[in-house]
Amino acid sequence: MLALLLVFVAQSPVLQESFTSGQKTLTWVSYFHQIDSTLTPDDSMIVVQDSTTPEGDGWAGLVLQAGGSPSGIAYAEDHIFSDSLTVEAWIYTQVTPAMGPYNGLVFFVDPVTGGYYSLIADFDSDGRIRVAHHDTSFMPNVIHVWTASNGDFQLPSVSSWHRFRLVYQNRQIWVYFDGTLLPGCPIQDNTGGIPVGYIGFYTFIFSGTASTSVDGIVAYDSPIVGVTEGNDWENTPVIFYSGGRLNISGLNSGIHIFRVFDIAGRRIIYRRFTGERLSVPMRSGVYVIRLDERTERIAVVR
After folding, report:
1. CA 246 to CA 280: how far, in whole Å?
2. SS3 state at 149
């Protein structure tokens, strides 16, 4: 099956937040206070000291379920995303034998008419990761569920920090847990939800109060600025995906350097090779590829 090669222009994140020195750089707002002003805005983002943060600066953001809100949602009103996005963050997921709490992120949050999408970790006895759309009834329209019992991911044994990444493009969703693409991606979004709005973070418990700690938040608009379908890269070389491998052929003889980066910019493959072809194992996902000094491209591998 051919990869879809897309023109790529490197870009900076449109949103970043690490709560360094106990400060917020983004404008965080309570979703439910916007929907119903009688609810107190206690579920907006606060900054707390936390010596366990993966970034090591001793500060994290905290979202609370409080003030009578159905759940806790804080979103950043600094940027509106439309149709596509990439969001990545450290989230402290709570592992408990009881029901809840849920910890996660939200995207395409619409505080005017109501509604949002969610990606949540439900690490109680259910042991699952779920992506869903919520309309104004606040009941989730589940898009997909991954379960540890099915071997979709390894359930943490204790409450701890984990890296979540979500990519939404052309009504398709890719979800990564600790850098690993979850099986079945891309997942098709058939909910009819409107993919326009803000990104934020989420907590929920059926009874009592709950919180979600977050850190190292990075979000991008879609890096795609143009599309060429097929398997050619400036006519030569030919790059295609087949049998779980990314294959390159039609190179000039000599020494070549092939590099692959994940969507967050981390290099995951480096090959220095001699010859006219190369084949490397690749999982499904979204990657930035560079061959010698050619223009970077995004490869959506399915």
Report:
1. 5
2. helix
Cα(105)–Cα(164) distance, integer angstroms: 9
Place of tokens 């190179």: 251
Residue type, 35: I
Check if the beta carbon of residue 166 is closer than 8 Å to that of residue 105: yes
Residue 3 domain-assigned (yes or no): no
Is 106 a domain residue?
A: yes
**What are the DSSP calls for 157-185, one per residue?**
SS-EEEEEEEEEETTEEEEEETTEEPTTP
Alpha helices in the chain (DSSP H): 31-35
Residues 59-74: pLDDT tens digits?
Answer: 999 998 876 667 788 9
| Domain CATH for 96 | 2.60.120.560
Closest CA to 161 of 94, 223, 244: 94
- The answer to whether the beta carbons of residues 273 and 244 sit under 8 Å apart is no
Task: Looking at the structure, tell me whether residues 121 and 179 fall in a common domain.
Answer: yes
Give 236-267 pLDDT, tens digit per residue. 676 666 667 777 877 788 888 888 887 667 78
Contact 117, 131 (CB under 8 A): yes
How many Cα atoms are found within 13 Å in the side-chain-facing hemisphere of 225? 8
Place of tokens 């979800």: 175
Report which residue type is found at 277: R
Neighbours of 220 (CB within 10 A): 20
Residue 92 zone, left/alpha/beta (φ > 0; ψ -120 to 50; rest): beta
